Amino acid sequence: MNSRERILQRLYASQASAQNPEQTSQTTGIQAEHAAGWTQLAQSEWLASFKQNLLDNHAEVIETTTANWAGELAQQLTARGVKRLLSGEHKQGRVLLNALAQFAEHQAAEQPSAAIDVQLVTTALSKEELFTAVDAGFSVASAGLAETGSLLVETGPQEPRALSLVPPLNIILLNASAITASFLTLVQAQKLPAHMPTNVLLISGPSKTADIQQTLAYGAHGPKELIVLLLTDA
Fold it and tell me: How much is the pTM?
């Protein structure tokens, strides 16, 4: 059973319970049993499921380390011809900024046109600038959900939600140790922020829609690509 089928199964069960209150306790028991099955899996199994779900949803997963991720991303961005990248105002964004500056110095002699303009978002951008002049957005996820292959991004002044929703290339950094079984186990472990932001994003792949003739199309609105940098040593 893939992630889509599991989600649909839950929706059908929830709808049936709403129509027949006598089934509520049975449905709750099924959900508890389902959650317990996930929590009994090893961390390595969570990781495998998380990666496979992302791949099934047309995302790209790059396993890397704390020491190497910024350099590897610099090469990825150069290969994709990214000219301008926006990042949230956080530690990882500043690390990326420095890494890209060093990478540009090494590449200057051979590829002077490959320089990437990296900007930490500290002020609001105009819609025109955001939609037309930015090639990629870089965000940091606070958790990963193995059951659905979802990344949880807490938005706010230091992590504007537009970074994950507008640029055609969406890049998200995640510590492998932050992967948990499901959203239910995340809530049960009380790992959500103490003061909930206006928006918490759950991202499972690039944008997609089936509005046109019920044909699934990727990149119709929002990011056309999703790269997940998975830090396996953190």
Answer: 0.78
User: Which three-class secondary structure state does DSSP give residue 52?
Assistant: helix
Domain boundaries defined on the chain: 1-40, 42-231
Q: Is residue 63 within 8 Å of 232, Cβ to Cβ? A: yes
Q: What is the pLDDT of residues 64-90, one digit of tens each?
A: 999 999 989 988 888 888 989 999 888
Q: Across the strands, what pairs with 11?
A: none
Point out the residues of the chain with pLDDT beneath 70.
1, 15-42, 107-115, 122-124, 193-194, 212, 219
CATH of domain 42-231: 3.40.50.10420
Unique residue bearing structure tokens 């990882």: 92
| β strands within the chain, DSSP E | 60-64, 84-87, 117-120, 136-140, 143-145, 150-154, 169-175, 179-180, 200-203, 208-209, 217-218, 225-231
Cα–Cα distance, 187 to 174 (Å, whole number): 18
- The DSSP letter of residue 148 is T
For residue 2, the tally of other CB atoms under 10 A from its CB is 13
